[in-house]
Amino acid sequence: RRGFIYVYPPSSVRFKNECGDENTLGFVVREGSDARGQTTAPICTSRDEAFERPCGIDQFDRLFVYLCRGWGSDAEDPARVTALFHLALHHAGVRDYTYGVDGLEALKAHANAVDNTANYEYYARAVLDEAMAAPMCSNGQPPVSTYRCGGRACLCEELSASLCDIDAAFRDACRVMCGSCPSAL
């Protein structure tokens, strides 16, 4: 495939049910698929057309992703990134069998577990959480605002590692020094 076309917000009355409530971030349309389960229909020829009728793919193999009004509610929410991952998986033929941690636990031993979008979404969230923590685990540690060195916030390496055991704020800010960074894969 050659990418995605994002439709925000879908304007047609036809899409009101798909967007559901304000917590729904998006949806995809799949009315046909190939032997590998990838979306093949419905085909639309323009982005503008996708605002008025359901589109799954265009003539250049770009896949349509509809983003609901809930998408725009919190620009900082990491769920927006994992939702895109979830929606893209639907175009690859992966299904929704269950949502939520309890549902995933129940599905764990089931054959459909590998074909459940939420499993992949939770994995993507774990990767995203690690990536967001990574800057705090680099060599250039951030200043620790609770300690002053010559009138400015101290850098981690200017302080004693013994603070790791007694100061939670220091432990959070100086993850490398305190040994709380994940090991490299």
Task: Explain what you see.
This protein is α/β, with parallel strands linked by helices and 185 residues long. The protein contains seven helices and nine strands, in the order βαββββαββαααββαα. It has helices at residues 16-19, 47-50, 79-91, 100-107, 117-133, 168-173, 175-178; strands spanning 4-7, 26-27, 32-33, 39-41, 43-44, 57-58, 63-67, 143-149, 152-155. Strand 5, helix 2 (47-50) and strand 6 (57-58) form a beta-alpha-beta unit. Helix 3 (79-91) runs antiparallel to helix 5 (117-133). It is elongated, with a radius of gyration of 22 Å.
Give a brief outline of the structure:
The protein has 185 residues and is α/β, with parallel strands linked by helices. It has helices at 16-19, 47-50, 79-91, 100-107, 117-133, 168-173, 175-178; strands at 4-7, 26-27, 32-33, 39-41, 43-44, 57-58, 63-67, 143-149, 152-155.
Throw out a few tags for this protein:
30% helix; 185 residues; single chain; elongated; alpha/beta; 9 strands
Main sheet attributes: strand count, strand direction, barrel closure: 3 strands, mixed
Spatial shape: elongated
The secondary-structure element order is: EHEEEEHEEHHHEEHH
Total helical segments = 7
Note the gap between the termini.
29 Å
What is the tally of beta strands? 9
Main structural class: alpha/beta
Give me the secondary-structure topology.
Blueprint: E1 4-7, H1 16-19, E2 26-27, E3 32-33, E4 39-41, E5 43-44, H2 47-50, E6 57-58, E7 63-67, H3 79-91, H4 100-107, H5 117-133, E8 143-149, E9 152-155, H6 168-173, H7 175-178
Parallel strand pairs: 1-7, 5-6
Antiparallel strand pairs: 2-7, 3-4, 8-9
